[in-house]
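Hello,

Our lab assistant flagged a job as stuck in the queue for most of the afternoon. It eventually completed. Since we weren't sure the result was trustworthy after the delay, we are filing this so someone can double-check. Below is the sequence as submitted and the structure that was eventually returned. Let us know if re-running is recommended.
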Amino acid sequence: MMEWTQSPDQSSAAIARTPWWINPSRLVLFFVLPIYLLCGLLGQQTLFLQGVKDYITLGIICIGGLSLLCFAVGAWGGSRLPANGVGLQRIPAFLLDQVIVGFGGITIAAYLVFFAPILWNMELLAEFLRGSSSIRFRYIFNQLPGITSFVGLGNLCVALYAARMIFYTKRIPIGIHVLIIFMLLCVFLRAFLNSERLALIEVLFALAIPFVSFRHKSSVFRWLAPFIGLIFLFLMFSVFEYFRSWQFYKDRGDYGLAAYMIYRFLAYFTTSINNGAGMMEFFAPLGYPALSGAWFYKFPLWSQLGIKLPTGAPIEFFLEQYANPEFNNPGGMFVLLVDFGMFFGCLGMIVCGVIAGNLFKRFRRATLLGVILFPSWLAGVSDLFRVLYWSETRVFPIVAGSLVAVFWIRASLGKLRRSKGSLPDVSGAETSVARAHF
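-- returned structure --
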């Protein structure tokens, strides 16, 4: 079961003993930063094979490293700030079930809209599986801002589902099991057919992080999980790329499948760093949130109000003129630096780290917000090589949904308090979680 230790500053609070890599500051210092340095210093051959000009210099590598260090410092500080919130031991299981069903229904409806084109024409899917390189589902699926964006709520459903399995002894309704299985199938199809590997990584984090933190005891596997996960990521990447790009490139080079997959995998890291380095050279500082505010420019409300905003992102221009549009990630450690310059960019990375560190503390204390939001946030920390995850449009529904869930459960607990005179303590009857700080 869970490993808990008493909080040094709150005698009544219990804190989970999570593995080192679930701490955002340690994950950056001992996993993200070393891989970043290796790719930056040794990735020239990969860039050459991809036909990309090398913009990476020793100075740029140091600047990106400084950005990551700022994030790590912020995460360390955020984990020492107050982290109050509703503890799971105060929430009856039926309230979590209601949130899972509500968000799950919205998620499935959004997926039905998203997959509608192939549901009406299954021959497209059959042709893709036969190895056709002409099928590009990215341009076929319905991607409607404000509608299909709600697929992101599935991450919250999966995190709550994991919490129900770990913390609560009350039986989960069979309908919820079916809902989650169907949702996971939709995520896999979205990742496979639409080349959204990050969607699969997000949901795996939401499902696995609570179990690794609260259920499994210390072990070699638990300690080495990030490196094992990197191997799994490569295998998943290879399967997806076999259908996505290998069918096109296999007759255009003298390399075998294994060599192609290795260089292609490394290219996603090195070209991300290289793109960020190039934009630092040509654009920095832009002086406005061109890259970090992409979610704001794409917010569907503006089109409904007839307000036209610039796309803001110069990365498309950079890729067309100076790099390879096929590798379009900007490098998460450079995004804020390109937008705001060194000082304010590093300050922004500290702020991102503070939020990550505080969510980590809330997660360790088994508060509702921490349990449902932190796994997705940690997925963003692990992907700092490629993108600044929290500036992506996909994150807005996750954050907004988390806040709605917390608000709704707080309101429901208030109604229970008013109707019964006091809140039931479900820590013994319904849940096995140790008393959390709230």
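-- support follow-up --
The delay was a queue issue, not a problem with the job. The result is valid. Strands lie at 4-6, 14-16. The chain has one domain: 4-420.
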